[in-house]
Structures are given as C-alpha cells and as structure tokens.
Amino acid sequence: MITISGSFSGYSVDDLAAAATFYRDVLGLEVTDAGAGLDVALPVGRVFLYPKGDHEPASFTVLNLEVPDIDAAVDELAAAGVTLERYPGMSQDAKGVLRGKASNMGPDIAWFTDPAGNILSVLTN
Length: 125
What we know:
Blueprint: E1 9-13, H1 16-26, E2 30-33, E3 38-41, E4 46-51, E5 61-66, H2 70-79, E6 98-99, E7 108-113, E8 119-124
C-alpha cells in the first residue's frame, strides 16, 4: 500500500479570472493563485482549478457543497445571479431543489454551474 498524506481534487476551467471571481465572490471561498492554477480552500480540503484551452465541462457534478440550510443557500445563489440547473425527469420544486430527504431518497440538492460550465451542487443531508 502507498502512504497517502492528503488529497485534493482538481478540474479545468476556461478562464481563471472568471473562476476566481465566482468561487471567491459568489461562493465565498478562499481562492489563492497557485501559479499554474487556483487553489480553492473548502471547509475540509481544497480543489485545484487549472486552465485548459480546450476545456469541456463534465456532464456530471464535480463538486458538492454541503450547506446547513438548502433554501437559504439557494436564495443566496439566486441573489448573486446564479441560475439553478433543471433536469428533465427530476422532481425539482419551484426553487430548483430536488427534495430527497422528505421521500427518504437522498439529500435535498440543487445544481448550478460555474462560469466554465462545470456542474456544482449545494446539498443538505
């Protein structure tokens, strides 16, 4: 077995300046210039954002952000100009939240994208 001393995730963006503004000013996370990209500090751990000229966003959620109050988080995102994603066949409410807790089918969750089109979510377990 290898000895692992830590871990982090990373994904590409097409515009580091736009990403820095979004993750810092909209999501309220600490963003540090790491030379080859951006380090985004999370409450536990971090994510590394790197520039990629031919960036294509993933078709799946790359980052889930746990929040204590899904409704407050969704309202704050909307106030910051973030549009929530709506997916066909998903029973999202008027706010765009999939209410999984009430039906014992997972978390309450809402999806949105960063400026590069990467899919993020806020969720409450």
